[in-house]
Fold this sequence. Notes:
The structure holds 2 protein chains of 2 kinds.
Chain A: E1 2-7, H1 10-15, E2 18-22, H2 29-37, H3 41-47, E3 59-62, E4 65-66, E5 82-86
Parallel strand pairs in A: 1-5
Antiparallel strand pairs in A: 1-2, 3-4, 3-5
Chain B: E1 2-5, H1 11-18, E2 25-32, E3 40-45, H2 47-65, E4 67-75, E5 77-80, E6 84-92, H3 95-112, E7 115-121, E8 124-127
Parallel strand pairs in B: 1-4
Antiparallel strand pairs in B: 2-6, 3-5, 3-7, 4-6, 7-8
Helix pairs in contact in B: 2-3
Amino acid sequence: MNVRIRFFAQFGELLGTDIIAESSSGVALDSLIKEVASKNKEGYDAIFDEHGSFREFVIIMRNGKRLDMADAKKVRVADGDEIAVFPPVAGG
Amino acid sequence: MIAVRTDDIDIGKLISDAKQRGTGAIVVFDGVVRDDDIKEMNIEAYEEVALKELERIAQDAKQKHNLLSVDIIHRTGRLVVGENILVTVVSAGHREEAYAGSRFIIEAIKAGVPIWKKELTNDGGRWVPGEHGHGAGSRKHK
């Protein structure tokens, strides 16, 4: 199963901007992001706190739709999903 | 026109095009790179999602503020001090609607459109912090 993970802004600098992650079917979204982010401690620490929870300001989209962060642990990714992980937006 | 792009914007043409039957007021917002002791600004976007969000904001603004036309162009890439970052042009029958619609659009963009800015300095760079933390884009503009 392949899932595309896109990191933006400082997360992208630390972890790469566009990653194809191979994983087993039905993996939890937070587990997959942890696995990918664990390749860079600074990047991991930017997204997850000391308890392994998403930091309060982290925003996640699945296939272009914003996730309620309370659901992030419950969501199971599917083959072909695009997951975007980013800090608060600052356009304009 | 609704766009996320690297090219600069012909504001004069947007204003001309915004003048249509019933137009009594046009408000232009032009956000530019400020001279905050920086060399350049690099602007990054989640482009496909940002474009959809801008299109939705334009529709919301038209409906809520009775606008006749809306243009939103947000630039990406490296920009120097003084360059245009974001241009919005709205037309309406009256100034109250045009001002309110313009304000609605910029606040909605800052709240929820996935775009980020990095100020490039002689020491490296710094990401501009967002004004809205977790839950940003919670559709407060709806």
